[in-house]
Amino acid sequence: MFRGFYTVGSGMIAQQRRTELLANNLANANTPGFKADQSTIRSFPEMYMSSLNANRIPTEKGLNLKGLSPVGELSTGVYMQETLPLFTQGQLRETGLTTDIALVDGVLPINEETGLPGAVFYRLENGNGNEYYTKNGNFMLNPEGYLTNPTGQYVLSANGQRIQLQNDDFQVTSEGVIMDGGTAVATLGVAFAAQPETLSKTGNGLFASEDGNLPNAAVTNGVSFSFQQGYIEGSNVDSARAMTDMLSAYRAFEANQKILQAYDRSMEKAVNEIGRVNG
Q1: CA distance 190 to 134
Q2: What is the rounded distance in angstroms from the CA atom of residue 241 to the CA atom of residue 172?
Q3: Which one, out of 30, 190, 223, 244, has a CA that is 20 to 30 A from the CA of 259?
């Protein structure tokens, strides 16, 4: 009985966390460059149950031989093991702003270990020199004329340098070359992640690598990409599917809740009636 409480409780916790994940996806359905999170729910190791019995041996003293009879496997509950971002390309949305630059996926090699394609990202740098990565091309110029993202991280060039411009009247070619006043100022820096699922989300559409800086995508074999000025990449959240999945998670939570209430009523009856001693 008590094992049932734990099993049902683990299911409710897993579905609650899944609902929170889906709610966060829906809240960012219009966030530029946002990558939807996916969850994986797995079962705890199952228990193999056996019953203890005794077989009487027809001897003079009538010995009993104890043995185990297999009953079967018993689930011990589920848990949400991990969350992984989905790195598919979001739809491009035209804004007409020169500081909005969409990074468009081209050919991305398939990783042999995971069977999934890699991903390309803009290279960003914060004030402490740490490098971050994003697909959000919604840029702007700060008071010093440096190209930054909305939270103040500097956009890096292919050479790893900050990009400083005279004003927002500049052009970006499909190869990422920034032309300011007819002069090539810099080339937008792009990094390639062969296993993007190993990147960690740090908030505001940023990703960080725990294994050092990612390699330059421009010199990585088999990787191609392009740029579209005046466009931004939208979120890749499928709102209709997210709503359906959220409803499914809510129903699963509700079903576990009803089972938990049934266990509770059974325990109440056991305490108040079965355990009663009649005078």
Answers
A1: 10
A2: 35
A3: 244
